[in-house]
Write a structure and sequence with these properties.
The structure holds 2 protein chains of 2 kinds. By secondary structure, chain A is α+β, with helices and mostly antiparallel strands. Helix content of chain A is 44%, strand content 22%. Classes of the chains: A alpha+beta, B alpha+beta.
């Protein structure tokens, strides 16, 4: 009886993680992981899905002409969670996220600030002669998941300054969205 | 006979792979014992730039501009691992936490370097891993009342390269200043 209870407990702990393990599309899996872990819902971005990212200087213009385009044109995938409750539990979330992604993605930098109020995760993977970057940012009330493709030139920027460039990638994606 | 030779070759290759992987494992410090500090810290930074990423980057970065600069910084490096914790108050980590890292640096291959100073307050220790004549890695342990940082670079890196890496590739600014050799002016 004790063994059955133990097995049931192990199963209960393992199944939720296994159920959200990525199969194919890691971006959607990460979005689903956040939804399941924090009990939140992301907002669809039909504009971006249809239009993709425009070639040109949209972001630069909005930022006053000084910003530098980072993501490759048409490469942005974005999910936004706005005005929802993200509790400070980050330890188990971080473990689940790393377990879900490390088979196909390489972790670059992970930061937890203000005692868990802000979490940032950056993962990388090779994509032919370019790189995919996945940036996940979770604040107390908002979260974003951004996947972009980077040229080697911008990979160099990301490696030099992972935190700053990761932040710019998220800003670039959300600024385009706000346009 | 041919099958036997092939089996022998496969065994040798496997043994070599195991030995090489074991060696890299030794060069890389086990930092997971510090993970529990994240719950007490107001800021935690965890950098994991492993060999896979270094190889990808070296292969694709060109020899121009920023790409050239990063390519030369990472040349030969097999991994950069950083854990940094910043606390709101004193006494959030114990000597046992530091001892868990220092004990790994007491191995015969690790040597503590003294030819540097830091512009920052607190205790800064730099260790070099020697594989015979070759530098196999470097470790930095920086501790003050409210901050604990461990940097582990796997591969051929000296303190001057460490100083160049500061503030880049996830390596925090440690304020390292390499001491100049004193010239003998008694003429």
């Amino acid at each position: 009886m004790k063994t059955i209870r133990l097995a049931a407990l192990v199963l209960a702990l393992v199944v939720p993680v296994a159920a959200i393990h990525p199969k194919g599309d890691d971006f959607n899996s990460v979005v689903k992981l956040i939804e399941q872990f924090y009990g939140v819902k992301h907002e669809g971005i039909p504009f971006l899905a249809k239009a993709g990212m425009k070639v040109g200087t949209t972001a630069a213009r909005i930022k006053g002409g000084t910003a530098r385009r980072i993501a490759e044109a048409g490469s942005i995938k974005l999910a936004v969670f706005e005005n929802q409750e993200f509790n400070r539990e980050f330890s188990q979330f971080r473990t689940s996220l790393n377990t879900a992604l490390t088979a196909t993605w390489t972790p670059l930098i992970q930061t937890i600030s203000d005692g868990g109020e802000t979490q940032t995760y950056i993962f990388l993977r090779e994509a032919s002669a370019k790189f995919n970057v996945l940036v996940i940012t979770i604040d107390q009330r908002d979260a974003t998941v951004v996947q972009v493709t980077l040229s080697p030139k911008n990979l160099a920027l990301l490696l030099k300054d992972p935190e700053g460039t990761g932040k710019s990638i998220t800003e670039e994606a959300t600024i385009i969205d706000q346009e | 006979m041919k099958t036997l030779n092939m089996t022998l070759l496969a065994a040798v290759l496997l043994l070599t792979a195991v030995l090489v992987s074991g060696q890299t494992q030794d060069q890389r410090l086990q930092l997971s014992s510090l993970d529990h500090l994240a719950a007490k810290a107001i800021e935690t930074v965890d950098v994991n730039i492993d060999g896979r990423l270094m190889r990808m980057a070296s292969k694709l970065l060109s020899d121009e501009g920023d790409e050239k600069e990063v390519k030369s910084l990472i040349a030969g490096i097999k991994g950069i691992y950083v854990k940094r914790f910043e606390f709101e108050s004193d006494g959030q980590y114990t000597s046992a936490d530091i001892e868990g890292i220092r004990s790994q640096l007491r191995g015969p291959s690790w040597t503590r370097l003294m030819n540097f100073t830091s512009k920052k307050d607190g205790n800064l220790e730099v260790y070099l891993l020697m594989n015979g004549e070759q530098v196999g890695g470097l470790a930095v342990l920086s501790a003050d009342d409210r901050e604990l940082t461990v940097v582990n670079i796997v591969g051929p890196v000296d303190i001057e390269k460490l100083a160049k890496l500061e503030g880049q590739l996830g390596v925090p600014d440690l304020g390292i200043e390499v001491k100049k050799e004193k010239k003998n002016d008694d003429k």
